[in-house]
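Re: iron/sulfur cluster structure - here you go.
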Amino acid sequence: MFQLKKNQSLNSKKFSRRELLNKGAKLSLLTAGTLLLSQMSYLSRAMAEKAKSLIPKDFKLAKPSEPTPKALQYVEVASKAAARTDKKAFCHNCALYGVKGADKVKEFKHPKHGPVNACGMFGGEYVKSNGWCMGWNKKS
Ligand code: SF4
């Protein structure tokens, strides 16, 4: 970094203007980089907090191994469902995606599970956007 050579001071004639400008420019870049990194860190923390705040208090992700999802051959990745014949069928375009009791709820991006929404077939438990089950019914 910025070091004075032996017998050199800021007032020394040996300390050229170009050298000073180069070192000043490097110092400015380093400072700008540090500030940018700290801003990015702050923003990513703020985004993580916002994502967490979107999670409903009663959030529960349906597990394919549980009785109802299992009976309906629910899978979290539609392309892995052997019984699926319509290659365009996904939870996100199913009429029951976003149905929670009598309410309609919006999809949100879970920080760990990705886009999810409540499924009317699974009593409001959440399913993955790209999932599928035998209860799929095209959204109108
Ligand atoms: S009923 Fe629809 S939204 Fe629910 S798991 Fe089956 S395909 Fe997905």
